[in-house]
């Protein structure tokens, strides 16, 4: 496994691979890797000849009062995990290389960037789309792997790829969870034992919607109220949003809900967690 920190070196490595006819699969991450990230790596391995994983805690997607400084950084342990998964290249640039003084160009996906997490985290999706566009230009992947865990991010990036005619196929993999249902997240490390238990309410709320929808309930309002009632049963959960929306436009769905996205965000202590579920199409 090769560790590359220099942007030009990464571009040349990718170009060389493509000239040999190899396909490139790419998994962008912020590190502190867990099984959710590794599921994307395995998918990339199955899909492409050369697998590149980036580890970059992107300052542009953090708000001024958010956890940029304390976000876990574990490059050594992450590298060992990636080596064991058969990853070919880890790309870990410095913030100074990614954003040299005077860098003023950003990518903004209009409208979608102001919904869900974008509403509570102004500028977050501009940071995400900018860094992913830059990483695509650096790594030049044929396939890019993302987790359904970040459902709004998936919508924003799909739109960016479409609108800017980026020559990359986006593949979205399912959410990986702990045995008790908590969605894996690098931020779970911030939770106390109590908060970790309280955070299970997110999964309970989503399950409530899933089971009501499975028994025929089609009213988004009723499904939403049922989920809100579950969330209210856990006073430690400070709700940010719970929405039943179209997964591509992120707008609330009207009467029927098959294929709809149920997305939730709440804060436990100082830790903001997100989770979601796609209702089965029938
Ligand atoms: P992050 O390091 O948090 O930026 O995440 C990197 C990628 O891993 C993103 O595409 C995430 O959606 C994905 N990811 C994070 N957590 C999970 C999870 N529990 N299951 C599946 N994918 C995940």
Number of helices: 10
**CATH 4th-level superfamily of the largest domain:** HUPs
Name of the CATH architecture of the largest domain: 3-Layer(aba) Sandwich
How many strands appear in the DSSP assignment? 9
Give the ordered list of helices and strands: EHEHEHEHHHEHEHHHEEE
Silhouette: globular
Q: Kindly estimate the percentage of residues that lie in beta strands according to DSSP.
A: 15-25%
Euclidean distance between termini CA atoms: 44 Å
- What is the class of the largest domain in the CATH system? Alpha Beta
Query: What ranges have pLDDT less than 50 throughout 5 or more consecutive residues?
Result: none
Number of spatially distinct domains: 2
User: What is the topology, as strand order, of the major beta sheet?
Assistant: 1-4-3-2-5-6
Bound molecules: adenosine monophosphate
What do we call the CATH topology of the largest domain?
Rossmann fold
Structural class of the secondary structure composition? Answer: alpha/beta
């Amino acid at each position: 496994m090769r560790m590359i920190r220099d942007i030009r070196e990464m571009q040349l490595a990718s170009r060389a691979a493509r000239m040999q006819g190899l396909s490139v699969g790419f998994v962008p991450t912020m590190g502190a890797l867990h099984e959710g990230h590794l599921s994307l790596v395995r998918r990339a391995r199955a899909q492409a000849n050369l697998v590149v994983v980036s580890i970059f805690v992107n300052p542009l997607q953090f708000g001024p009062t958010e956890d940029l400084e304390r976000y876990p950084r574990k490059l050594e342990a992450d590298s060992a995990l990636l080596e064991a998964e058969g990853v070919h290249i880890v790309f870990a640039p410095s913030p100074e290389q990614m954003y040299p003084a005077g860098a003023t160009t950003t990518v903004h996906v209009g409208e979608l960037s102001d919904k869900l997490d974008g509403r509570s985290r102004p500028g977050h999706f501009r940071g995400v789309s900018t860094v992913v566009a830059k990483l695509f230009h650096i790594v030049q992947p044929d396939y890019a792997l993302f987790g359904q865990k970040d459902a709004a991010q998936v919508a924003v990036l799909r739109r960016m790829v479409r609108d800017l005619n980026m020559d990359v196929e986006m593949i979205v993999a399912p959410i990986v969870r702990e045995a008790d249902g908590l969605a894996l997240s690098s931020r779970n490390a911030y939770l106390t034992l109590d908060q970790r238990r309280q955070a299970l309410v997110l999964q309970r709320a989503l399950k409530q919607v899933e089971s009501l929808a499975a028994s025929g309930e089609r009213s988004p309002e009723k499904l939403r109220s049922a989920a809100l009632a579950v969330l209210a049963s856990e006073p430690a959960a400070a709700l940010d949003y719970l929405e039943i929306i179209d997964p591509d436009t992120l707008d609330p769905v009207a009467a029927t809900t098959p294929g709809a996205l149920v997305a939730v965000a709440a804060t436990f202590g100082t830790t903001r967690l997100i989770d979601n579920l796609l209702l089965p199409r029938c």
